[in-house]
Amino acid sequence: MPRRTVTGRVDDLFTDAAAAGVTVTLSAMPRRWTDEAGDRVLTAPDHPVTVVDGSWSASLLPTDEPGIEPTTGRYYRLTESVNGVPVRRRTFEVPTGDLSPVDITDLVVADPALPGYVRGATGATGPAGPAGATGATGATGPAGATGPAGDTGATGATGPTGATGATGPQGAMGASGTVVTVAQARITDGAVADLTSSTPWIIATTSVGTPLQCSIAAAAGDRIRVHLSMMYVGGHFLDLALLTGAGAISEYGASGTGTPLAEGAPEFYPSVSFSKAASAGMFTVGSGHISGGMATVALVHSGTSSGKVYANSVYPFRMLLENLGPVGGSAAGSWLPRPSEQGLITWTGDPNDAGHVTAQSSAGVAGRITLVKIPIREQVTISNIWLGLSGIDAGASLSNCYLGLYDAAGNRVGVTADISSSLMTGATAKALPLVTPVVAAPGQYFIAMLLGAASTWTTNSLTFKATGAGISVNANLSAPNLRYSTIGTAQTSLPASLTLASQGTSTINTGWGSQWYALS
Predict the structure, then answer these.
(1) Nearby residues of 443 by Cβ (< 8 Å), 6 or more positions away
(2) What is the pLDDT of residue 3?
(3) Residue 125 burial (CB < 10 Å; 0-12/13-18/19+)?
(4) Could you report the per-residue pLDDT of 292-302, keeping only the tens digit for each?
């Protein structure tokens, strides 16, 4: 099959010259492409690309080449790393065109600062700047000698080109579009068995009780697009549904309301006597649809006759969700500093906006766990928790001090070794490694800090960088969803699990501000 050469440079990662240790990796998305017969793999994931003097090139199969499965949704992801640390990711398509070489800067269609996200709609073009003044016309060259009658004489030499006029100012840039996030469920644990007989509409499950559904990080007002891939047979009526935060059916896709159509979504009609056309489903998330920062869409059904939805290793059930964000997107947020621009995965806020927080008296704080909520929008591997140490107490006695990461259910998924010695030196931003890196799925997480119960320090000396909002970060929130809270007393280690319903604010209400953290 024809291929097209894509080129690029890594010099624009640095302010001076290209640095050593830069590596470039190309990945096909999805990670496997085959011909239509399905018997030949056409791409391989995570292909390293050689960088020579800051330049690289790769011969790639066009993403719109016919005769390839999947037929749509193919693209490439470029990851640029410095000394093994990813610092920039770009997602792009390669059109067939004339198969001439093309630079990566002419292909990128996703936001480089947020890997895996597809660029939203382009904003309106700003007004054109005024045209520069027209350059002076060059002098006309001398006329050529007149030839013999009937023949045209030679053309005289062209006069010099006039100077180019000044370029007019650039028009205003249009608003940025919304970033898209994705989540996918692939369910294969079910035997081939009939769906549960039920006249009321219920969530479809496999033979071992796994619900056929998928969740994605979302906020009220976000639009969720649903793509479904499955095989089904029998007489049950089927539809897609947006669930409440408690897991009940809230809105049916075909009707757009809380009341289903009598025979479900037309594209899932059980009879094969009709031609059917399907497209992606769409839901708008409300506050009542969110649990732990996630919204869930499920396959639902109604029927008492025989009917099956296949969800096993031979015929997997797959659901892909795309969060398109709210209507109109967020123009302002797209221009703010981003964690990836500093080699970080995510943070609780721009560190440029962080003030400082006093650790207060050791009598009121030592042994308490403070929790700061942080969202993770796509699956990532976390190796370090960053904090901002703004003040050191040279006379402090610190022991059993830890940072940890907990999921939305209160389960500890990562923890550092004792960081007591790290809090006695270097008042700056610190990367404190987890004992074991964490592969974190999308969702809401809590960063926990413990200054051990036996620790002592001087009030107003041991301080940490924090947001200026302080306790205001908990506006309109209650346990177990507080963004900033404390839990427990007399602790000497971070427990394996926390009861997040026990989150409290009495200690931090006396003057703390929500600590600044980042992940890498």
Answers:
(1) 217, 292, 293, 294, 375, 376, 407, 408
(2) 86
(3) exposed
(4) 888 999 999 99
